[in-house]
Amino acid sequence: MNKAQLVEAIADKVGGRQQAAEAVDAVLDAVVRAVVNGDRVSVTGFGSFEKVDRPARYARNPQTGERVRVKKTSVPRFRAGQGFKDLVSGSKKLPRGGEVAVKKAPKGSLSGTASATVKKAAAKKTTAKKATAKKTVAKKTVAKKATATAKKTTAKKATAKKTSGAAKKSAAKTATAKTAAKKAPAKKSTARKTTTRKTTARKSTAK
């Protein structure tokens, strides 16, 4: 079974292939980081992962039989738990697919800082999701503010146009009123002159 087949095997139990792939990646990443840092990852009933240091030594080349010096190195090692061994040896029956083959690890079963590594990985994912959500909210807020500003600007322009039109109309009425006022006195003076002429004519007739 390879990684893809492992993902497919647990996809139905975790809610989908994408969730299964993320879960497998998160677990493997946490185990690898813990072992590289020198921590021992122990899962009750399954086994433990740890880092083992191998000192410098001499070995023989299997093809030539020549003695070769091997440098000091570190290698990962997995030790199967007793429950895992019992299932593989056949001393215990393997439960059906719907049941748990290995007992669930109790709290604190991850030794060293492995549990902290798992928590950090989960915290990073949560932080990334929150940051993405904040960016999305910020973009929406900016868009809403821009839309509101544009509406206000349009409303101000419309109000300014209306005010300008009203001002023009008021100016036109004022100008008309002034023109009418100027013409009115002229008519009155003409009427006065006409009356004066009539009065003069009557006096002349009387004489």
Q: How would you describe this structure in keywords?
A:
two-stranded antiparallel ribbon; 3-stranded antiparallel β-sheet; alpha+beta; 207 residues; single chain; 5 strands
Can I get a quick summary?
The chain is of the alpha+beta class and 207 residues long. 64% of the residues lie in helices and 13% in strands.
Q: Based on DSSP secondary structure assignment, what is the total number of beta strands?
A: 5
Report strand %: 5-15%
Strand order of the largest sheet: 1-2-5
Broad shape: elongated
Average pLDDT, to the nearest integer? 74
Helix content: 55-70%
For the sheet with most strands, the description reads: 3 strands, antiparallel
The gyration radius over C-alpha positions equals 49 Å
* Contiguous runs where pLDDT drops below 50 for at least 5 residues: 109-115
**Which structural class should the secondary elements be placed in?**
alpha+beta
Helix-strand string: HHEEEEEHH
Number of helices: 4
What is the CA-CA span between the terminal residues?
146 Å
